[in-house]
Structures are given as C-alpha cells and as structure tokens.
Design brief:
Elements lengths: L9 H20 L7 H12 L3 E3 L7 E2 L13 E3 L10 E3 L2 H6 L3 E4 L1 E2 L2 E2 L2 E9 L4 E5 L4 E6 L7 E2 L4 E6 L1 H23 L2 H20 L4 H10 L5 E5 L4 E6 L6 E2 L4 E6 L3 E9 L11 E6 L7 E8 L9 E9 L10 E6 L2 E2 L5 E2 L7 E2 L7 E2 L13 E2 L17 E4 L4 E3 L2 E7 L7 E13 L2 E6 L6 E5 L1 H10 L40 E8 L2 E5 L4 H7 L13 H11 L12 E8 L2 E5 L4 H7 L17
Helix pairs in contact: 4-5
Family: Belongs to the membrane fusion protein (MFP) (TC 8.A.1) family.
Organism: Anaerohalosphaera lusitana
Keywords: Membrane, Transmembrane, Transmembrane helix, Transport
C-alpha cells in the first residue's frame, strides 16, 4: 500500500492565519459600544416622556403628537401613562407636555384695578339753556326779524314786532295815570298825589307782565303817546332751533314763536347696561369721542343717573354735562364713551380726587373742599361717600385680590382655577373652586378660595381640565361629589341600581346638569357634546339606559298610556301636547292646551300617567 504524502506550503498557512486574525479584529470593532449609566437613564426618561394625545370629547382619538381632533376640531390634550395617581383634583404632566400645551401661569396678587365701562349715546341740548319766545298778549305778527332756523342771535337782539290792541290800551292807561299824577301835584294834595303814583306803578307793572322791558316802558313815557307795535327781544344768546310762526299770523297769549338754544354747554345722553351700574357714580369723569373729530377726546362729568331702568333695552340713561367752546359738539351727533372707575377691596368704587370732598346731590358738577351751599340751586352739599364713593384715601390695605379673567373656567354658579403646586418633581396642577366678585376690566376680584402668592394657570387651563375629565376626576363640568357647593344638581347619583349612572354615549360618569328629555324621562350625559350625538339616533342608546328597560317600558305603556283628551274627552292627537311635571299630556285639538294650563290640577284625575289617574 502506498502512502501519499501531502506537502503544505508554509507561505499559504501564514496567509490563512493572518486572514482569520483580521476577521476577528474587525468583528470586535463592529461590536456595539456598551451604554453608560447616564445614557441608560436618559433612554428611560425618553421612554417615560412618550406622550399620547387624545380628545376630551372623543377619547377614542389617540395620536403620538399634538394637534386637533379630526372629529370636533378641539385641541388634543396629553394622556400619559401612570398619571391616574395623586389627589382627586390633581394631575401631573411632563415638562415637554406642558410646553406643548402652551401652559402659562401668573402669581395671584393684590392691586388696584380699573373697570372699563363702554357706552354709546348722542349729543343733546342742555335743557336748562333752552328758551322759548312766545306772545304775551294777543295780536298780529307784523314783522319777524329772524326768518329761518339756525340763525345765531345774541341776548337782546330784536326778534318780533307785534301789533296788539290790548297792549295799546294798557299803554294808554299808563299815560293817563302819569297825566293825572302831574295834575294832582299842581293841586298840592299829598294823598291824591300818592294815590296817582301808585296808579303809575301798577300800570308799569302791568306792561312788564305783558312782556315789555323797562327800557320800552321808559320810551313810551318819553314819547307821551302809545306805540302801535311792541318789539320782542331775545332772552338769551344762542341758535334759533325752531321757528313756529310766519309774518301776518294772528297769535294768542302763549303762542310759541321761536325756540333758542344756548350751545356753549351741551348734554351727552348715554346708555349704560344694567350689569355695569355697580360702577357708575355721580360726578365721575367720562371720556368720549365722535366720528366727526377722529382722535379727539372730549371730557365731561356724570350729572344725572336715571332712576328707572328701560325694560326693553335693559339700560339706564346717564347724562353728562360738557362745556362746548366753539360749538364743535352738535346735538344729534353719536358718541362712544368710556368710564374707568378705580376698584378697591370688595368691589367698591374709589376716586382719590373725590376723597373728603363735598358734592351737590342735584348738581354733581359742583364739588367743593368743605361743606357749603350749591352755587346753582343753593342746596346743602353732602359728603361724596353718600354718593357711593369710598371715603378712605387710597392705600395698600384697600387693594383687592385679583386674578386675570383668562385664568377662570366659569360654568353656571361655579368658578374653577388651576394652581401649579410648588415643590413637585413634575409639573403638577390642582383644580380649586373659588368665589368670584365683580369683573373689573381684564381681572376678576376674588372673594375667597385663593391667597396672594398662589401660582395659577392663565393659559392652557381648559386643556388641563379636559385631561381631568378623561380620567373621570372632578373638573369644570364634573364637580367633586363631596363638594357641598355642588349639591344643587351637579352631584352625581350612583347609589341606586335603578338609576342611570353612566353616559350612554361616552360611558363616563353622568353630570345631572347635562340632560335631555326623551319620552318623558331625563337622560343624563357626561359632557356637553353628548346630548347632540344622542339626539341623532336615541334608539341606538336605549339598551344602555336603565330607565328604558323593556319590562319597565311595557308595563308603563300598558298602565299609563293616555288615550283621551282631559279637556274635551276626544281622541288624542300626539302632535298636540304640553309637558307637565316631566310628562307629556296630549290633547285632541289646538285650543285644549291653553285651557289645561290655566288649571292643570283640575284635569289630573283624568290622566293615567299621573299617580292615581284613571282614563
């Protein structure tokens, strides 16, 4: 047997060994680098910060990034894993989620704020500066010196030349009295002379009462003969706003000939809404503008507040006295006005410039440093505090506790704010119900529930509230069951097996403030969007409602179905009905519901749907 010898070339062996070594080194270099502890922790944090976004109205919508709900268009809110813990009203988010939600906060503080009351109105005549020129005696208008309206006149300008037989006779009586007096003086009888002088005085007074001036009477006495005509002069300077007569017209005593208005001062009549009356005070400064003078601001004082509310417009009339140099403001012009009262603690109006002053209750434009009399009417002045102003001078202790209006979620009688809790590892927010005072400008005055220094959410609060609703925690629409302030109908009833406890649309806890009536029974929902969805197809949800179980429905239908009209006794028409005590009452014709509603109890015993009723 031959043995075959194999001879291996040494150079080939060396090449194979080098190739294997190169592959080993390359594999080692390609091995993944070990993660450090820091990298591992960062990876865990990244995983923890993975946030899903959902819609508070449609929780079936889940997305990996923020946006709008494809169904209703609402902003999506973050839904994080492990956020169900904590207090009932608390919720936590990651820093990234808070940024994406655009959450902004501010600190509750005490400061004086100004309410801003906007009103509209128009310029009108100052009624105290409007005068009529009328005929004081019967006669004929032989000359009208002012022959059209709108003419400017000065006090004392001639207006009318009037012929009056009655006035002619009274002038003659004056001249006769003067002649008699002169004759008696020459006779030397003192008593007769005194009597004649009395007759002269009486005749002069008679002419004054008929509208003649002292100068006109003197002219008659100098002339020694009566004048056939009497001239009537303007009692004030101003503009002739009405001309009520023509030349040659006969007039009686009291016939109005002209009306003159002094426009050096005008009134601005404004309409203030009922809800703004808490801020309105006599003597307040009002700024207003007119389209006739863009950019120019006029100023006046509130001189009158109508004691009667207009029931149709729900407004109260205010009157502002305004000086009108140059007559730029013309009656009939529309204006927009603003009052900005400063508000102190308790919502009381304060004006440092009025503190300690005295004011006239009839003419509030009259304000003095000390007690005294009104320059216009002579009334005693009263302290400004009696007109509704705060009597204490401005000071830090009177500053109210205020929060921005954007921080409050208001629903019915409840007001909810969200506080950012200090000292938490993650941004944590807590809902709190507060009691609000009046709204002043962009702020609410807080009566209770917050303290100075609390940090509250001013933007993004609705998204936080929506996240709480998703977790079935107390929120704006769903108050805490243990909250005594929510016992007026907002408390959720869950005790009875026979009562509805979940929303038929979304499956959440019901809120008894949100319901519709269907077939005479109330159906409750969890949020404001569900009733509309339910009403699209009510039958779809009936199997989820215990109040509409088959057995109850059949028994009720058989025992309590109404078949005859309680008023006329005819066959009912189910298109004609009214609701009474939560149940429908049907009638035979259109006139019966009105008769029924006059005295429903009269017909109750005829209605089987009410306890003890018989058909």
């Amino acid at each position: 047997m031959k043995v075959k010898r194999v001879v291996i070339n040494s150079s080939k062996v060396l090449g194979i060994i080098l190739l294997l070594g190169f592959v080993f080194v390359l594999g080692y270099l390609a091995k993944p680098i070990d993660q450090t502890h820091a990298d591992h922790a960062a990876a865990e944090d990244t995983a923890e910060e993975q946030v899903q976004w959902t819609c508070s109205m449609h929780p079936q919508i889940l997305q990996d990034e923020p946006g709008d709900c494809p169904i209703c268009g609402m902003d999506l809110i973050p839904l994080e894993s492990g956020e169900d813990g904590g207090a009932p009203r608390q919720i936590s988010f990651s820093e990234a989620a808070v940024k994406l939600m655009d959450v902004e906060t501010s600190v509750v503080q005490r400061k004086f704020v100004e309410a801003e009351i906007d009103m509209v109105g128009k310029i009108d005549y100052d009624e105290t500066r409007v005068k009529n020129i009328a005929a004081w005696v019967p006669g004929r208008l032989d000359r009208l010196f002012v022959d059209y309206t709108g003419i400017d006149v000065r006090k004392g300008d001639h207006m009318v030349k009037l012929y009056s037989p009655e006035l002619l006779a009274d002038q003659q009586a004056l001249l006769s009295a003067i002649k008699s007096a002169n004759k008696l003086k020459s006779d030397g009888s003192e008593m007769a002379s005194k009597l004649a002088n009395n007759n002269i005085a009486a005749a002069r007074e008679r002419l004054r009462l008929l509208g003649l001036t002292n100068h006109q009477i003197e002219e008659i006495e100098k002339a020694g003969e009566p004048s056939e005509h009497i001239t009537i002069y303007a009692p004030i300077g101003g503009v002739v706003i009405h001309k009520n007569a023509t030349e040659g017209m006969y007039v009686e005593t009291g016939t109005k000939i002209y009306t003159i208005a002094d426009l050096s001062q005008v009134w601005v009549k404004l309409d203030a809404y009922e809800s703004d009356m808490m801020w309105i005070r006599y003597g307040q400064t009002v700024d207003f503008t007119s389209e006739a003078y863009p950019g120019e601001v006029f100023t006046g004082k509130i001189a009158f507040i109508d004691p009667i509310l207009n029931e149709e417009t729900r407004t109260v009339k205010l009157r502002v006295n305004v000086q009108n140099p140059g007559r730029k403001l013309k009656p009939g012009m529309f204006v927009r006005a603003t009052v900005t009262p400063k508000v102190s603690m308790g919502g009381q109006v304060m004006d440092p410039s009025m503190a300690g002053k005295w004011i006239c209750p009839m003419h509030p434009s009259i304000v003095k440093e000390a007690a005294g009399d009104c320059d216009i009417c002579g009334m005693d002045l009263v302290e400004t505090g009696s007109m509704g102003y705060m009597e204490i001078a401005e000071g830090e202790q009177q500053a109210p506790l205020v929060i921005p209006e954007t921080s409050v979620l208001v629903t019915g009688k409840r007001a909810v704010v969200y506080l950012k809790l200090p000292g938490e590892d993650k941004p944590t927010f807590e809902g709190r119900e507060i009691v609000l005072g009046p709204k002043a400008g962009e702020y609410y005055i807080v009566q209770s529930g917050l303290e100075a220094g609390d940090e509250i959410v001013t933007s993004g609060n609705f998204k936080i509230d929506s996240a709480l609703q998703i977790q079935a925690k107390p929120s704006m629409m769903s108050p805490d069951d243990d909250d005594p302030d929510s016992k007026d109908g907002a408390k959720l009833e869950v005790e009875s097996d026979g009562e509805q406890i979940v929303c038929p649309v979304m499956g959440g806890k019901i809120n008894k403030d949100i319901f519709v009536e269907y077939k005479g029974k109330k159906v409750y929902f969890c949020c404001a969007g569900c009733p509309e969805e339910f009403q699209k197809n009510p039958e779809k949800y009936l199997d989820k409602l215990p109040q509409f179980s088959e057995e109850d429905t059949e028994a009720e239908d058989s025992a309590t179905e109404q078949t005859i009209c309680p008023v006329m006794g005819g066959k009912i028409n189910k298109d004609i009905f009214v609701e009474y005590k939560g149940k429908k009452v049907y009638f035979c014709c259109a006139g019966c519901p009105e008769e029924f509603q006059k005295n429903p109890e009269k017909y109750i015993d005829k209605l089987p749907q009410f306890s003890g009723g018989e058909e």
